[in-house]
Amino acid sequence: MNYKILDLFCGAGGFSAGLEYLKEFDALIGLDCDKQALITFENNHKNAIGVCGDITQTEIKEKVIELAKKLEINMIIGGPPCQGFYNKGKNLGLKDPRNFLFLEYNI
């Protein structure tokens, strides 16, 4: 079986690149809010489509869902932001909305 990957919070695509090394994984969609990181993602994954935006915004989420259905995505991976958990952000706790972005895997 070949796994077709949607990489949420993809950054430059390191997580999906590691999986693609195993050959049965193909990164087809990457989502990130950093345009420069997406350029690198697309360079690292020549057959992938990069989507730039905030996954909590309805229009971005709908675009990703539409692409995922079209490309028959069967695996979602990602590394949500962890800045709210760093020592500097330790006091932010529940006040930092980035700490809840993992909930967006429920797309």
Automatic annotation (TrEMBL):
Reactions it catalyzes: a 2'-deoxycytidine in DNA + S-adenosyl-L-methionine = a 5-methyl-2'-deoxycytidine in DNA + S-adenosyl-L-homocysteine + H(+)
Gene Ontology biological-process entries: DNA restriction-modification system; methylation
Pfam family, one: DNA_methylase
Cross-referenced InterPro entries: C5-Methyltransferase, C5_MeTfrase, SAM-dependent_MTases_sf
Active site: C82
Record has Transferase as a keyword: yes
Enzyme Commission number, as recorded: 2.1.1.37
Similarity annotation: Belongs to the class I-like SAM-binding methyltransferase superfamily. C5-methyltransferase family.
PANTHER family assigned: CYTOSINE-SPECIFIC METHYLTRANSFERASE, DNA (CYTOSINE-5)-METHYLTRANSFERASE 1
Identification of the protein by name: DNA (cytosine-5-)-methyltransferase
Organism name: Helicobacter pylori
Lineage of source species: Bacteria, Pseudomonadati, Campylobacterota, Epsilonproteobacteria, Campylobacterales
